[in-house]
Amino acid sequence: MAAVGKLRSGYANQGLLALLVALITLTIFTALFLLRFLDDNRLTNWQWAFDQSDIRLLVLALAAGLVLAYAASGVSVPARAQGALLFAAAFAAAVLFWGIPEVIVDAARYFMQAKYLELYGAGFFLREWGREIAVWTDLPLMPFLHGLVFGVFGESRVAVQAFTSLLFAGTVVLTWLIGRTLWDGIVGGCAAALLLAMPYLLTQPALMLVDVPTMFFMTLAVFTTLKAVREGGAGFLSAAAVAITLALLSKYSTWLMLTVVPVIVLTHLDRGWRTALRRAAIIALATFLLAGTFVLMKFDVVAAQLQLLRTYQLPGLARWEESHVSTFLFQIHPFVTAAALCALAVAFVRRDRKFAIVAWMLLLLVVLGVKRARYILIALPMLALMAGYAMREVADRRIRRFIVSCAVVSTLVTSVFGYLPLLKRMSAVNLLAAGEHLNGMDVEAVEVYTLPQPRSVINPAIAVPILDLFTDKRIIYRGNMVAPPAPESIATSPLRFTWEYDTPGYFRPRTDRPRATAVAVITAYGNQSLPDLIGAKKASDLRLSREFVLSDEFFRFKTLVRVYHTP
User: Fold this and answer.
1) DSSP 8-state symbol, 530
2) pTM of this prediction?
3) How many angstroms separate the CA atoms of 386 and 314, rounded?
C-alpha cells in the first residue's frame, strides 16, 4: 500500500508540475503579445503579425495545443525511430510556409544566378561566375545547387522549396546527432526538437535564400569533424573535408564560424593529442586543396568580394540590426533562451570542455555585435544544443518532454496564426499571384515594365526575377523607368546591390518574335500611368486582364502588378 501511495503521489506531483509549465507557457505568450511593441524584427514583427488579433482566441488555441502536448509527452519514442520522426516533423513544419511569397528581395540574386546554370549548363556557370554572372557578395554553391534543381525538375519554386525544406529537416537530424555524439540522446533529442521552437526559423525554408542551406552545411561540417576527430577513418576524414569546403562555399559568414573546428580539436586532445592533431592536419590539408582550388580559380572575384565585405558589409553590421530582445524572446521561444543561459552555468560547474564547441559560434556573434536575426540563423542549431544540454537536468522524462513540447506548440501557434497570415498579406504576394495568372494565359512571353518607387530606395527592376520565379512564361524585360540614385545616397544601404547588377541577357529582347505576349507593369501604387516606352498605339490596343494591388503598411517597396493582353 505504501508503494501505491508513493506512486500516486508521484503522479500528482507530475501533474502539478505539468500544470505549472502550461501556465508559464500561457503567461509568457500573453506577456509577449502585450509587449509586442518591443519587437523590432524587420520581417516577422509581432506588432505586425498580431495587430488585429484577439488574444482570447490565441490563448484558447494555445491551451488546446498544450493539452495535446501533454498527452503526447507520455509517449516514449524508440531511439531507432527518433531521427525519422524529427526529420518528418521538421519537413512538415517547413511545408506550412510554402504558400508565402518571396518577401526578401535578395532572392532575386540567387534566382538569377541559378537560372544561368539551368539555361547554359554547369560549365558556363563555373566559367562565368563573377563575370557575366553578377555575384555581389554571394558564393556559388547554393545558386549552383538551385540551378541543378531547376535543370532536373524544371524552373519550379516548389522544387526549390522542397530542396531547402529537406536541408532544414536534415539540420534538425544533424543537431540530434551532434548532441548524441557529444553527450547523449537526451541532449540531442531535446536540441533537435527545440529547433522547431524558433518561429522566425520556420519561415525561412520556404524562401529562395541561402541562409537555411548554409546552416545545414555548417552543422554538417561540425558533425563530420566531430566524428573524424573522435573516430578517424578515411570515410569520416574525407566527409569532414568535403563538408567544411561546402560550408566555405555557401556564405562568407561561415569562414569565421568555422573557427569552431580548432575548438573541436582542442576539446578532444584528452583522447590522445597526437591522434587528434594528426586527424586535424589531414582534414586541414584536404580542405585546403579543395577550397584552395576554387579560391585560386576565382581569386580576383573573391578578393573583390572580401574587400566589399570589409568596407561595406562589416561596418553595416552596426546599422542593420535588430535587438536581442526581439531575436531571443519573440523570434526564439523564451524557453530556449532561458535554457541556453542555464546551460552556461551547468557547463561551468561541471567544467565540461565539450560545451565550448556548441557555445563558440554564439560567443563570436556576441563579441562581434551581430544582431540581425538572419545573420544569427547560422548558429541556431548550436543555441538549440545549449538549451538541450540544460534540459537534461530535468529529471522527470515526461516533464522534460512536456517543456520542449510547450515551446514547440507555442511556436506553431505564433507561426500559423501570426506569421503565416502576415507574410501572405505583404505586397510581395502580388508577384506570386500575377505569375500564377500569367501561367493560365495563352501567351508565350510577357513584356515586363517597372515603374518608379517614390518612397523606396530599392531598384524596382529587382522585382522582375521574382516575377519570373512564379511564371513559366518567357520574360522580356523592356527596361527600368527609373533613374539610378546618386552613389553616395545608397553607399551604406543594405539594398545597394539592387542598383549594381545588369539585367541578365536572358531577359533582354531577342530577334525571334513570340507567338503572343502579355504585358505586366510592376507599380508602386494603383493609379501609376503606363510608361511612354509602351507607346501610344500599343497602349491603346491593350486590355486590362487582371490587377494585383494588395498593399501593406510594413515596407516602402511595393510590388503591385497590372497584367494586360491584346484582344
Assistant:
1) P
2) 0.94
3) 27
pLDDT given at position 10: 56
Closest by CA to 108, choosing from 515, 504, 383, 558, is 504
SS3 call for 378:
helix
Tell me what pLDDT residue 1 has. 44
> 494 and 109 in contact (C-beta within 8 Å)?
no
H or E stretch including 336? helix 334-350
Q: 70 with 15: CB under 8 angstroms?
A: no
Contact 527, 454 (CB under 8 A): no
Angle at 97 between CA 21 and CA 161, to 5 degrees: 130
Per-residue 3-state assignment (H helix, E strand, C coil) for 396-441: CHHHHHHHHHHHHHHHHHHHHHHHHHHHHCCCCHHHHHHHHHHHCC
Q: Can you spell out the DSSP letters for 283-298?
A: HHHHHHHHHHHHHHHT
The residues near 220 (Cβ < 8 Å, ≥ 6 apart) are 170, 174, 243, 246, 247
Q: List, as own/partner pairs, every contact residues 232-240 make where C-beta atoms lie below 8 angstroms and the sequence separation is at least 24, other chains included.
A: 232/275, 232/279, 237/279, 237/282, 237/283, 237/286, 238/286, 240/283
Helix/strand/coil for 561: strand
What is the rounded CA–CA span in Å between residue 200 and residue 42?
11
Q: Identify which of 419, 421, 434 has the alpha carbon closest to the alpha carbon of residue 549.
A: 434
Angle among Cα 425, 106, 558 to the nearest 5 degrees reads 40
Positions in the chain short of pLDDT 50: 1-7
How does DSSP classify residue 134?
-
What's the pLDDT score for residue 7? 47
Which pLDDT score, from 0 to 100, does residue 19 have? 95
pLDDT of residue 535: 66
- Distance set, CA 539 to CA 223, 252, 449, 533 (Å): 60, 47, 13, 10
